[in-house]
Amino acid sequence: MESSKIQQFLEGKIIFITGATGFLAKILVEKILRVQPNVKKLYLLVRASDTKSAKKRFYEEIMQTELFKVLREKIGAKNLNSLVEEKVFPVAGDISFEDFGIENSEIKDEMFKEIEIIINSAATTRFDERYDIAMNINVLGAVNVLKFAKRCEKVKIIVHVSTAYVCGEGEGVIPEKSFILGETLNKNSYLDIDVERKVIEDKLKELEAQQLTSKEVTIAMKDLGIQRRRRREIEYGEVSKKLTPRRKASRTAANASCSETSPKTLPRG
Ligand SMILES: NC(=O)c1ccc[n+]([C@@H]2O[C@H](COP(=O)([O-])OP(=O)(O)OC[C@H]3O[C@@H](n4cnc5c(N)ncnc54)[C@H](OP(=O)(O)O)[C@@H]3O)[C@@H](O)[C@H]2O)c1
């Protein structure tokens, strides 16, 4: 889509963005405010204990970075502060929990009533993450976003930002297509997220019985992640550095236009 059309589309819209303190979403927030200051509202999900701490993280980790220098110079610090005050609403939450763990029903109901666009950019991007944590954030977190989206009365678009590191062995032109739940790149195998959840549950029980220290549990759960990934690479012909939710998501898709985007890896700093 042409950038002017996107700009036009964003006018007056209410957008919910997760992973706002992250590398990609931070850039997105700045860009939206710079190219379409007439956006109506930006709800930003930020991991924090409450709204006050979420706001603090937003100001310290997003607003006060070099990233906002251009916009600050363009419209002036005072106007930028007013724009942010009027349009940006940091919300404390964690995508590993249903409704992101938001307990304030007033905030939640307002979000259900207002949100029109959802951009899920929250993820753990560590390649050696504990398997249980990676599952909770990158797979079940995306499911929680979709469940939330289903309750948003005006939602039009859901964009799931994912990773590019999923490939198999294939030749010729490989078109982008939707996955069916459980489908893998090797036609003879099947990936069952519920099986993976059971593997995690059993492992945690086993480790608990051994009365290990939390450091030892962390190491064991990281190893489990590496083992399961290697197994997938061998059995399914798939190379996936980061556990991705695309299959799980396809089962839970809300009644809105749903897109998964895997941006080109960008250099940080
Ligand atoms: N950067 C790239 O070049 C690139 C390229 C291709 C694809 N991608 C994909 O784009 C997505 C975002 O990447 P990124 O580079 O922006 O990652 P990032 O810098 O690691 O940021 C991740 C964001 O997700 C948040 N987050 C993590 N767990 C969360 C949870 N349980 N609840 C709520 N928020 C949570 C983090 O919050 P905290 O600040 O609290 O940790 C942070 O804001 C990922 O899926 C990544 O694979 C990135």
Topology, element by element:
Blueprint: H1 3-10, E1 14-18, H2 23-35, E2 41-46, H3 51-63, H4 69-75, H5 77-87, E3 88-92, H6 105-114, E4 117-120, H7 131-150, E5 157-161, E6 166-167, H8 193-209, H9 214-236, E7 239-240, H10 246-252, E8 257-261
Parallel strand pairs: 1-2, 1-4, 2-3, 4-5, 5-8
Antiparallel strand pairs: 6-7
Residues 18-25, 45, 47, 94-96, 121-125, 137, 141, 161-164, 242, 262-263, 265-266 line the site of NADP nicotinamide-adenine-dinucleotide phosphate.
Explain how this protein is built.
The chain is of the alpha/beta class. It contains ten helices and eight strands. The protein has a six-stranded parallel sheet with strand order 3-2-1-4-5-8. A two-stranded antiparallel sheet has the order 6-7. β4, α7 and β5 form a beta-alpha-beta unit. The two termini are 28 Å apart. About 4% of the residues have low confidence. The site of NADP nicotinamide-adenine-dinucleotide phosphate has 29 residues, from α2 and α7.
